[in-house]
Write the structure tokens for this entry.
Amino acid sequence: MLASTVIVICHPNTNIPLKKSKKNSVGVLVAIGLLAIGFLVFNNYAEKRIKTSLENSLKNANASFDKVDVKVLNRKAEIFQPKFRFKGKVLKVDTIKVDNIHLWDYLFKKDLIIGDLYISNPVVKIYNLPADKKDSTSTKSKEKSNFKNNILLKRVKINGGSFEIFEKDSSDHRLYTSLRKLNMENVRINSKTLDEAVPFNYELIRLDCDSIFYDLDKQHTMTAGEFQMDNLDILTTDFRIIPKYSRAEHQKTTDVEKDRYNLKIDTIRLNNFNWNVDKDTMEIRNSYTEIRGADFRIYRDKLQPDDTSIKPMYSKMLRELSIKLNIDSVAVSNVYLKYEEKIKAERKPGLVEFSDLNGKIYNLTNMGLNRKDFPETHIIASAKLMQQAPINIDLKFSVADKSDRFEVSGNMAHLRAKQINEFLQPALNVKAEGRIENLNYYFTGNAYQANGNMKIAYQDFKVEVLKKDGDEKNKIVSALANLVVKNKALNEKPDNKEISVERDRSKSFWNYLWNCVKTGALKTFL
């Protein structure tokens, strides 16, 4: 029984499953080995292909770099110290990191899809140099036609860096800003976007920068403490227009009279801001703009020769603007405005100031000028004249109307004569006494002539014409002047004076309005 049992256990047929198991194990090991070798070959091939493609793309973009590192296993790539030069533009970057590369789309569809693109400390410098002759339209068209890939960058993150624009090869900045961060999502580049002024599309953008400097013109610079853009909303703080020269030096930079500006705005906020370029024309759309807390000081030296060039009306300025605007409304609050005018060398400048200025502008647009329902631009503002007298203005015009027709009305109350002597005495050598209780006006006009009416109620109004020194009263002339000034009692109903004024087209709209009011005042007083 025992021997029989041993024979059964050791029967040769029991070796067949063991041999099959060994064969299967060897097959699995061979397959794993082949897969490993294949993966290594594929990995090496993919890395070389991506690296070569990136290097060629950089070279085609006139870029130099230290090295390109690709890690297919991690689906990452990194470009060290790239530097781009093209058409007077220079871009330097510490590192460009690419993460989460979609290998299948790239290797088999030639579409580059990247999950994350990180750019560290870019320094963008733009020099306004003449365009290279090689940069012809035919060359650009050829480059676009050769661009067959679709590029999608799901997330782009830029940290640090700066953006600078120079005048030709000068070391002086035309524009400079320090960049904190810039985030974009779903950035798409293809043959179609390359035809646009901005050669890519994006869905979301967040921008944060500071230390903005812009060389505005020969006499002024523009700065901002901070600029933030969150998708379609923009916030700017500590915005300034700063004169480069003192009042005396300012006049040496111009052959004709030209205003010297000094402006500070606490905050500027834009809601639902959008822009694009259509046929080389920039279009800006904005639903609401808020300007809060401003101090604006203007100085003009009338001793300089007059600027006799024709000054366009606001409607024409907007109609012929090089960019297209569509701004639904603008709100201005808590503004101080001071205007000084130097008329006589031996006297101090005449002064007019407005405080607590608040206003709104509706339908600031020059888009769709031919449509029947083109909206009318409407401006409403209120302030205190010379710190005390309340003043209001209501102005309407249509940008589409080539006759530049406008309608303006307003009122002022409780103005004491001594308050306007700050302007009358140094500017006109006239000193007034008494007060204006109420003033109302309404004018319609165009670029050439205005007509309307004005009512003034005043009390104990007297005029003193000063001698040339501006201080001593000229008694004879003053007496003659006061003979024709009609003193009205406070309870008398003011007369309605019809007024017609021809515009001096070398002067601004505000000079035009001032002449209308001045003509009405003279008709009332004399």
User: Anything to note?
Assistant: The radius of gyration is 37 Å. Residues 1-14, 26-42, 133-140, 474-481 have pLDDT under 50 and may be disordered. The first strand starts at residue 63 and ends at 64. Residues 336 and 355 are 5 Å apart (CA to CA).
